[in-house]
What does this fold into?
Amino acid sequence: MERLNYESLRASGYPGYVLESAPEKVMQFGEGNFLRAFVDYWFDVSNERVGWNGKCVLIQPIPFGLADMINEQEGLYTLYLRGRENGEKVDRKRVISSVSRALNPYTEQGYADMMALAVSDDLEYIVSNTTEAGIVYDPACALEDKPAVSFPGKMTQVLLERFKAGKGGLVILSCELIDNNGRELQKCVNQYIDQWGLSEEFRSYVNDKCLFCSTLVDRIVPGRIRDAAEKAALDEANGYVDELIDVGEVFGVWNIEGPEWLAEKLPFKAAGLNCPVVPDVTPYKKRKVRILNGAHTGFVPGAYLAGFDIVRDCMQDEVIEPFMNKMIYEEIIPTLTLPKDDLEHFASAVSDRFNNPFINHELMSISLNSTSKWAARNLPSFLAYVEKFGKLPACLTASFAAYVAFYSTGVKELNEHGMVCVRPKGNEYVVSDDRWVLEFYWAHKDDSDEALVQAVMADEQMWGQDLSKIPGFAAEVTRVLGEIRREGTKAVFAKCL
It folds into this structure.
């Protein structure tokens, strides 16, 4: 079979939407699985639904990447969106044609092509996802580097080239998983303006003519098909060989922080896509962390002790899923500030997302660093609930007790891999966390439940405060922990319903 390109795609009889040529409106730093299953998908759907008529040029952010492979396939790749939607199994295929080409700026020609794109009249947006480590100011970068090693350094070079050519400002959409990603990128660019002695006119161009948007991205992207037999079967069914197959979950939302006019400029609103422009992404990040991530951390340690191994099985259990839902709807959502309908709509997708038949999400993987996760994801909801209602939330309290049980059940040894424990079904498991946390629990392994709970709650390094001062909390967690030891976490979770 032929490699995927426009000619082989036509020969395969693919019946879906394809846009072969269009102006290059997006410079995208990052060519990996996530951006191709997320950003490029949204632009592709916009081309189909509202005739946005735009292409994305992908910039390889490091010397080694996918640029050559993308160009061999003329920017085309097959995207599968898989999961559950409204309780139904979904497996959708779409050939993405919103990518025109990819550039490697670490080659002489690639750098020249990036700078030529920078001054194009068609260019409107710069999008990036260069990982959490990407938005970093590196003083070793010089203006004369071709290119600057850091992503903010490259961004400064691109914007300077555009400024010198007298071209208008751009909208910059940062997708890196750090707080205030857009503002942090803008801060780094201003640092290079200072370091490189660039003009105040250019500084004004960067800060007044360009719009740096912080964004919040949410879609699980497993990426490539790892099973060779499955990959071969898909190629056979498609009628072409695709070395860039990408896989993401069905659910996706892209919250973009910006002014009202941006919602009309971007094609997403007109296309009916889940990419709202909002004044501040902070409440939406809180929504994601407390509902989605908080749900995971809230039930996973207890579910593992109850004998479960993957998330999907938990969502098909008559106790674990209702426990999670009660925690979300009755204890977490009432503490958040977004409209209730918005919060409940987001929460309604959680069970579908966790029940994805295509992803075996292991509980032990989610359990990594549960101490800091519970502190960041669940403790704020717990404290807000206590303050608002003047009582302890039953599910979050049981969740905390289950977390303590997970770190203290059948403790056998502490080694270089973590702390070895034994769950009730008999198998050993390794608790992975910061070394000081593991050493804390190891030191308290012989404590009574009451003494252990008191020590855990009073450790301000873990929680930022002494939780034992919350009226009734230590006594209730001690009681619930005792029930977990005697009856198991599933029985305890059932009592919360």
Observations:
- The radius of gyration is 25 Å.
- The mean pLDDT is 96.
- The first helix runs from residue 6 to 12.
